[in-house]
């Protein structure tokens, strides 16, 4: 007896962007494509590079969703390649963020196609040590987590250190010189000070100093990040599982021979940056922000953060005495 799979499209839930994903799901279920694979990567490659490695003779249909404006096509594009027993969905958003999913009846055929696509999507690099890729994370009103990667100009520590007081300079200097393996003395950094004291410049210098071993993630909406368990887990687990990040030594170019010789090849690290996050740092944070404070503590020194090379940097305009004592505890806060 023949069976038929039916999927109803809910455009309110998935938006027009989700139509190709739903089409792929329909084909996967209807045709019994049991082998699944996926990967995501930050790359400067173009969609044309992907088209060249997919066998055009095997393609039965190609579904495309792209902007009508040619200038916007470099920002985002979606293509679904239907080869009968194999379907491949390739999407690029915010120009650099690639997501590739595949389903097939044949494991080897699927692995070969995915490997060929991955080969033409090299990890984003920069020859300029003062340009660093930064991932910007946010969650929309429908609960979808989005990530957009931008190249950010970052000053070296030597360029900005004269702007800091002796005490602040000494504390920042020790952070700038960190290199894995890191001592287990906490995963939280608290930077506090009134506006104009150089917190943002310090963050950019830290990104420049750590670029060879640490991926930089900026949380646009920190109050929602710790307020939503799904949002938080998606960011920290995706950063930890990102296969491209394992080649951390290739994230950016080196500025001299000494830097070229110093390459980090260990498990990738991830820095989560949250600016002006006053509401879950103060002494009454538990009352005002619910589970946000608890999740922050668990991520930096609790069960959630175990096995993750995740560092959290939070800035605040609040004075030190207003910050919750649990956050300042020795062994939890690596820099204050």
UniProtKB/TrEMBL annotation:
GO molecular function, one term: ATP hydrolysis activity
ATPase AAA-type core domain mapped to chain residues: 189-333
SUPFAM superfamilies noted in UniProt: P-loop containing nucleoside triphosphate hydrolases (SSF52540)
Pfam families registered for this protein in UniProt: AAA (PF00004)
Stretch forming the signal peptide: none
Record protein name field: ATPase AAA-type core domain-containing protein
């Amino acid at each position: 007896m023949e069976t038929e799979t039916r999927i109803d499209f809910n455009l309110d839930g998935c938006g027009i962007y989700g139509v190709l994903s739903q089409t792929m799901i329909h084909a996967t279920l209807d045709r019994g494509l049991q082998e699944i694979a996926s990967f995501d990567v930050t790359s400067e490659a173009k969609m044309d590079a992907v088209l060249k490695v997919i066998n055009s003779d095997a393609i039965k249909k190609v579904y495309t969703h792209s902007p009508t404006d040619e200038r916007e096509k470099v920002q985002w594009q979606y293509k679904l390649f239907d080869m009968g027993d194999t379907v491949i969905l390739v999407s690029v958003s915010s120009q650099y963020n690639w997501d590739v999913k595949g389903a097939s009846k044949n494991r080897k055929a699927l692995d070969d196609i995915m490997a060929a696509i991955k080969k033409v999507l090299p990890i984003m690099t920069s020859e300029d040590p003062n340009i660093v890729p930064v991932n910007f994370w946010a969650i929309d009103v429908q609960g979808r987590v989005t990530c957009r990667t931008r190249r950010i100009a970052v000053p070296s520590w030597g360029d900005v250190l004269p702007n800091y007081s002796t005490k602040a300079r000494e504390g920042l200097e020790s952070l700038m010189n960190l290199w894995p393996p890191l001592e287990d003395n906490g995963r939280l950094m608290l930077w506090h000070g009134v506006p104009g004291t150089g917190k943002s410049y310090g963050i950019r210098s830290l990104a420049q100093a750590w670029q060879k071993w640490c991926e930089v993630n900026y949380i646009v909406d920190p109050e929602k990040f710790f307020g939503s368990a799904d949002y938080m887990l998606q960011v920290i687990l995706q950063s930890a599982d990102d296969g491209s990040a394992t080649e951390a030594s290739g994230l950016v170019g080196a500025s001299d021979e000494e830097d070229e010789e110093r390459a980090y090849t260990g498990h990738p690290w991830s820095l989560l940056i949250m600016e002006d996050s006053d509401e879950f740092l103060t002494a009454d944070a538990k009352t005002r922000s619910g589970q946000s404070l608890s999740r922050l503590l668990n991520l930096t020194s609790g069960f959630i953060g175990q096995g993750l090379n995740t560092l959290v940097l939070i800035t605040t305009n609040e004075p030190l005495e207003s910050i919750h004592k649990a956050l300042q505890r020795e062994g939890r806060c690596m820099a204050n």
